[in-house]
Write a structure and sequence with these properties.
The chain is mainly alpha-helical. It has helices spanning 15-18, 24-45, 52-64, 69-76, 80-92, 114-140, 144-157, 160-179, 184-193; strands at 96-101, 104-112. The N and C termini lie far apart (57 Å).
């Protein structure tokens, strides 16, 4: 990361981009927000009332049928809390409902309602166009999805937290070593053995 301070507002007009790999998280969030804004606009112009957080769950439920919150979380790669919030929102909208798990009476599964199935029928043609456009963008951006797969794999090997913690631990050891003067031992022995005049 560069420590050079911007000389004018023009230099800071895209601070995040200027930080390069140091701002990878911010860049990903910004791209996600940008894509989500456009997707929301597409749905709105099509006259379909849908929250973007529903889309993944709706797709998975339409493909695999009733699933538990845990199964949905695993399939989507997000937290149980996020899936629970999405399920509650879908149920409130009348698009999904919870049913007892036939294999485990203590658990419940989420399934699409008739209204949810009708919405899927509305969404499928639009999803096909969105998927085609996403593939076009991926190709134009020189296979960015493959790069994201590599980033996922790198984080699986060692998370951001693990990498930072390792650097901090190494840095702390080095700092302690630097603080201890090389002649601390001999100097101390000299001061102790010195007799007053």
């Amino acid at each position: 990361m560069s420590n050079k301070k911007p000389q004018s507002m023009h230099d800071a007009s895209d601070y995040i981009r200027g930080q390069g790999s140091a701002a990878i998280g911010a860049r990903l969030r910004r791209l996600s927000e940008r894509i989500d804004r456009d997707a929301a606009r597409v749905y709105a112009e099509a006259g379909i009332t849908v929250e973007l957080r529903w889309v993944g769950a709706l797709k998975v439920l339409s493909l695999y049928g009733p699933l538990s919150v845990g199964e949905l979380a695993t399939s989507l790669g997000i937290s149980h809390v996020s899936v629970s919030q999405t399920r509650n929102s879908l149920e409130k909208a009348g698009l999904a409902s919870s049913i007892p798990d036939q294999e485990d009476a203590r658990s419940r599964k989420v399934q699409l309602t008739a209204a949810g199935c009708r919405m899927i029928k509305q969404l499928e043609p639009l999803w096909k166009i969105l998927e085609d456009v996403a593939a076009e963008l991926d190709e134009e951006a020189n296979r960015v999805v493959a790069a994201l797969d590599r980033l996922d794999a790198a984080l699986d090997r060692s998370s951001l937290h693990e990498r930072v913690a390792g650097r901090l631990k190494t840095g702390a050891r080095q700092a302690v070593a630097h603080k201890r003067p090389a002649n601390a031992g001999p100097a101390m022995r000299t001061s102790v053995s010195r007799k007053p005049l």
